[in-house]
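Run log // design_07
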């Protein structure tokens, strides 16, 4: 789960990490007022669930409140495309107005979960700021990493080693040690899979300050934090993903034309691989999980049909717990409701499979049955390449 920069900064601040003075605004008038409060000179920052805003024109140093208002008007109407958003970009609905800090040096500092070692790692670089990806590519030796032993936790001497390697000395080095230890506490207590400060700066006045912040919470731990669900900004999420989450379905948008309805992550991956091997390109996949009901399957099918990139559907279900006739009813119900005539291939196996197939074949849908995974994938790819077409009432 992602949150905005201003929310991440509030968390950092509650752990004693210095942040610039700032205000969140929802309208350009509020931006103007916030800019006045900062004394006119300020930094206006688009809040989206992605970084790379500086380079994409989403962060600007402002000198007058009117200039802040003008820029905010432009930002609020805009979809910001950065190197982290994908080509569709993200809409700007909130703006952070911050005091403009005089920066002397910029560092990179983050703590994230390393999936190889199943441990937290601290990552730091003396060359932080908006070009960190370039630094990582060009000179990976300038990126320091330190794996944290979960039994001993992060020790002060380790944090000091990082601070010294960043080139800090004296009291500012000790401030950085404390900051890194606090960051680790925040990471653990808030169940973060990533907590990133880029840039962490030394100001011209000689203070350490977090100038940007990104936090990703571990989705599996969200239930432990009552306040997290209220922190979500739904304007930043794909509406289909929101709908899927409501029904506890895992929906992932991809770039092809074949919608995939499967049960279980393993089967989903196998389905995508086999489809690709047959020359097909998945538009998405929707995992209905183990014991899905007829309503859940119908909702899943409805979500797939709302994706107007979908030109054909491949259903690959192993009905170990689910009954195949129940799945078939769910598909027929959802497809019927939106007048779907798209080509569909269903491969299913398990209990009541014959009843399920019979229901589908007698349903009047544009459906074929796949004998095996390979056969099903080949069939849907073939139908699309032969120009078998259909439509859905909700897509023009
Ligand atoms: P992003 O990482 O999305 O590009 P940042 O918040 O890191 O956005 O901002 C980009 C750059 O703008 C920073 O590297 C920093 O140099 C500058 N910047 C950001 N906030 C401030 C601020 N409050 N005062 C001065 N400079 C800032
Ligand atoms: Mg940044």
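design_07 sequence
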């Amino acid at each position: 789960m992602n949150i905005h920069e201003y929310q991440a900064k509030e968390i950092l601040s509650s752990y004693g990490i210095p942040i610039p003075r700032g205000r969140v605004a929802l309208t350009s008038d509020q931006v103007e007022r916030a800019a006045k409060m900062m004394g006119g000179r300020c930094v206006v920052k688009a809040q989206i669930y992605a970084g790379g805003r500086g380079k994409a024109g989403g962060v600007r140093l402002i000198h007058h409140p009117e200039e802040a208002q003008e820029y905010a008007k432009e930002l609020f109407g805009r979809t910001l495309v950065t190197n982290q958003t994908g080509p569709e970009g993200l809409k700007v609905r909130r703006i952070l107005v911050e005091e403009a800090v005089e920066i002397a040096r910029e560092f990179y500092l983050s703590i994230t979960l390393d999936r190889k070692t199943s441990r937290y790692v601290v990552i730091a670089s003396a060359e932080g700021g908006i070009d960190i990806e370039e630094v990582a590519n060009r000179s990976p030796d300038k990126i320091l990493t330190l794996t944290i032993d979960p039994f001993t936790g992060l020790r002060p001497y380790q944090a000091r080693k990082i601070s010294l390697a960043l080139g800090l000395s004296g009291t500012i080095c000790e401030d950085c040690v404390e900051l890194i230890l606090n960051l680790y506490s925040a990471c653990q207590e808030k169940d973060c899979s990533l907590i990133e400060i880029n840039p962490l700066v030394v100001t011209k006045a000689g203070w350490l300050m977090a100038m940007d912040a990104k936090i990703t919470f571990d989705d599996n731990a969200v239930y432990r934090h009552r306040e997290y669900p209220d922190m979500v900004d739904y304007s930043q999420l794909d509406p289909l993903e929101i709908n899927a989450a409501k029904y506890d379905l895992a929906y992932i948008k991809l770039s092809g034309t074949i919608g995939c309805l499967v049960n279980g992550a393993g089967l989903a991956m196998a389905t995508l691989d086999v489809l690709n091997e047959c020359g097909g390109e998945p538009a998405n996949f929707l995992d209905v999980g183990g014991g899905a009901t007829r309503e859940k399957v119908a909702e899943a099918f409805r979500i797939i049909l709302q994706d107007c990139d979908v030109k054909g559907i491949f259903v690959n279900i192993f009905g170990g717990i689910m009954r195949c006739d129940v799945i078939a009813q769910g598909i027929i119900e959802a497809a019927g409701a939106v007048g779907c005539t798209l080509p569909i291939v269903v491969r299913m196996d398990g209990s009541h499979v014959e009843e399920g197939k019979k229901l589908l074949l007698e349903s009047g849908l544009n459906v074929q049955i796949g004998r095996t995974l390979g056969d099903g994938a080949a069939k849907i790819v073939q139908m699309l390449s032969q120009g078998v077409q259909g439509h859905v009432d909700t897509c023009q």
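The radius of gyration is 25 Å.
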